Amino acid sequence: MTHKMVYNFGKNVAFTPAAYAEPKNEEDILQLLKHYRGQPIRVVASRHAWSDAIRTDGLLISVKHLDHVRLNKVQESVRVGAGCQIKYLLQQLKSHGLTLPSVGLIDEQTVAGATATGTHGSGKNSLSHYILCVRVAHYDPNTGEPTISEIDASSDLQAARCSLGLLGVIVELEMKTRAVYRVQEHSQRHESLASILAAEKQYPLQQFFLMPWSWHWFGQHRLETNQLRSHTAGIFRMYWHLGIDWCLHLIIIMLTRFLRFRALVCGFYRFLLPLVIVRNWRVTDDSHRTLTMQHELFRHIEIEFFVTRPHLEGALDYVKYVIAFFGGSKLSGEVNTPIPGRYSGSYCHRYPICVRRILADDTLISMSSPIGDGNNEDWYSISLICYELPSRRAGFFGFGDFLASSMQSQFNARCHWGKYNPLDRDANERLYPQLKTFRETVRRFDSQSRFSNAWLREVLLTDAPSGE
Ligand SMILES: Cc1cc2nc3c(=O)[nH]c(=O)nc-3n(C[C@H](O)[C@H](O)[C@H](O)COP(=O)(O)OP(=O)(O)OC[C@H]3O[C@@H](n4cnc5c(N)ncnc54)[C@H](O)[C@@H]3O)c2cc1C
Q1: How many Cβ atoms sit within 10 Å of the Cβ of residue 153?
Q2: Ligand 1 atom nearest to CA at 53
Q3: Which of 55, 121, 189, 391 is 20 to 30 A from 175, comparing alpha carbons?
Q4: Residue 54 Cβ contacting ligand 1 at under 6 Å
């Protein structure tokens, strides 16, 4: 057990917990809970969240040694240790001809870490939605003794699927699996959002990008297919790895950190990038390889908004307007929320804006949980990514704070729990109609509020008693 400074991937969260532990099994976890009774406890996984989700000044637990993978062929599911990395789980599943129904852009997270914040890809529900059962270590509300509960039904399961660690220490998850499948992909430039959205029926797994400063659209059109792996798939992967994961990102980092002139960014998106991106190269490959990339290669920070389809067009127009304003120029048109003049020129956005569709989850508070009244509309996420050095992100935070506050009021936009998330309690109260049920569940599993932290109490748990 050591005290050590803990940083997240984005280096925007740093803290020193009072104690840190890496238990080997469930029994060790129960012993830790006994030993640290009455003190705050949080769990850390791969540290990829940009929000304050892992922060604690009490005991920080990593369950990385709980990484077993046990197939249940009858249920078409897998029982997996909470600390298992998604890439390891996918590897194990693949050797049995299986995979997960949904993956995010990277596979570095652990299963418990990814699902705790509603991590998602494009064209499917979030990973949390596919959880069938959660085993969680917490304090028995009657005896106060550490215990393990198995949650596999009712609103408790909906809460446990995406719980931000608030129910206790998750030790094991059971997740749905499916047979491995292949995805065909090609990229195309579009002049309008309407044109890209029209392609969605044909390419349900697609994601697309709004290019900053050139304002054209670029679609990565994807669909599940029975076709065999393309002969050119290997070359395509190499092109993607060297050309996109490395070269494109190095250029954006140069334009962000060294050659900071806006004219260069504009020139890059207007003239250079369209020449470099290979269009209409149709490639079929394994779903895992196609749907993920190595976005973790270079340190960055991200804020991601979630809006329903009726708000998508307005939200994207607004984001475009705000990017231009913060970058020091003005687009034609009007916006509902006036932007204070001090923001003009305070931040230049330099990364393509990624848009993904997520189906409504059967959860209480994942970002793609239903908006209520039986309304199960699809969600669209809008990602804004910044490669500034951690010490030079003031502009990004001002931009993110302004967008979060104005977009929640205009478009009911939610913020990703595992990314930079400046939304306050009032906004969350309004945006998540099932928050009340979530809070009741948390109080039953953690009556003393031991598994929360200051941020989560402030923005989610309102009148929860203080435990830290
Ligand atoms: C490069 C990069 C790419 C990303 N791509 C995507 C993407 O495509 N889609 C997307 O939606 N998100 C994406 N994210 C966000 C990321 O998926 C989430 O932040 C996720 O929560 C990180 O998982 P982790 O394993 O690193 O967990 P951590 O960041 O360590 O923890 C996240 C949360 O999970 C809780 N937790 C972890 N394990 C347990 C446990 N055993 N019991 C209880 N609580 C637990 C922690 O307490 C914390 O609240 C990306 C992040 C990065 C850095």
Answers
A1: 10
A2: 49
A3: 55
A4: yes
In this structure, the strands spanning 131-139 and 19-21 are: unpaired
Q: 416, 400 in Cβ contact below 8 A?
A: no
Q: How far apart are CA 342 and CA 326, in angstroms?
A: 9
For ligand 1, pick from 29, 43, 166, 169 the residue to mutate: most ligand atoms within 8 Å of CB.
43
Look at ligand 1, atom 51, and give the residue with the nearest C-alpha.
48
**What's the CA gap between 43 and 58, in Å, rounded?**
11
Q: Which amino acid is at 4?
A: K
Distance CA 464, CA 40 (A): 13
Q: How many CB atoms lie within 10 A of CB 126?
A: 29
pLDDT tens digits, 367-425: 999 998 778 899 999 999 999 999 999 999 999 999 999 999 999 999 999 999 999 99
Q: Is the dihedral of CA 86, 87, 90, 91 positive or negative?
A: negative
For 191-332, where are the E strands, in sequence order? 207-210, 217-225, 283-286, 301-308
Indicate which residue's Cα is closest to atom 36 of ligand 1.
113
